[in-house]
Structures are given as C-alpha cells and as structure tokens.
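Check these lines:
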Amino acid sequence: MMPAARESLLDAAYAALARRPWSAVRMVDVAAAAGVSRQTLYNEFGGKEGLARALVRREADGYLAGVDRALTVHDDPRDRLAAAAEWTAAAARRNVLVRALLTGCWSERLPSPALSPVRSGSAVPAQRRADGPLPSPGDLVALVRDRAVAVLNGPGVPGTADTAELARVCELVVRLALSCIAAPPAEGGVADLVRSALRRQPVP
C-alpha cells in the first residue's frame, strides 16, 4: 500500500475516535471513510489492535517532530526551551492521544495498546515499527530532554555547556510543561512560566 493510503486510514481512524469511543470504532467504517476495502485495512494493520498501535505511534512521532521544530524557532536557548514547553502543552490540549502518551492517563474512550512490543508478522515496515515498543511518559521526557540537549549543545552553538547540567535543566522544563497539562497556568501561558523558572535556573 502507498504511504498516502496508510495515512488516510490513520486519519479516518483518528476522526472516528473523535466521534465515538475506540471500542465502538468499526474497521469497516474506517476503511469506507478512507476509500479502501476492509481487507486492505486488515492487510495493512493486521487488525484493530495493530491499527491502534499504528495510530498511537503516529501521534507520538508527530508530537516529537513538533518538539524538534520548536527547538529551532529561536536563537536564545531559553526561548527554545520555552517554545518546546509551549508546544508540549498545546499538543496535549489538541490531541487526546498525545495527552494520554504524556500523562499515562488512558480514558475508556481511547485505545490503550500495550507499550511493550508485540509479536509482528507484518510485511509492512511501518507496521513492524508500530508493533515495536511504544513510548511511556518517562520515555517521552527522556526523548525530549535529549533532543533539547543535542540542539542546545550542538555544533555551532556558542560556548561549551556542562552537558549533565544542561540535561537537568532541559528535563526540568519538560516536567514543568507536563505539570501545565494537568493544571494549566492562570496567566501568561506556559512559555512565560518556563522563562520565569529559567531566570532562576540559568541555562549552562
């Protein structure tokens, strides 16, 4: 199957999830919405569990791609970290699967695939990846922290940062963003909160 068709099926599954609980989402309806046969859907994902894993993997990848973009928008390290924190909170507000991935809180409306890998007999490379391990909240904290460290301590960045201290500051920012998902700040938004914290906690 062409990657565009796989994306169409995942889009259809996500749209269906917005309208009804995952338990009520039917494979035949997802296939029809994407304009393919139900057999094509099963060939691509193996079954509903495979579709759920692929959907969760795609949303995790999309969130991390957004982190990468946010970390390159500004020149100042504090602004880069503030942008990543703001993206994290905004993505969680807009996307129920990203919120569940970041918080570990999977409501009954959502698919809740096991985070551990499952046996995959799929011939589709993208599905074999989806059948691999899915990120836990702790995994995502580490992934975002490490991405931020790589950007802020990479080639062409002025100064030589203490990598261990930089990693600690980056993780602090990620965890602050996660706290804003559970309890949004009243004023100023996530970015202002992060900048305020970083004024007291200098970036190496």
Remarks:
- Residues 48-70 form the longest helix (23 residues).
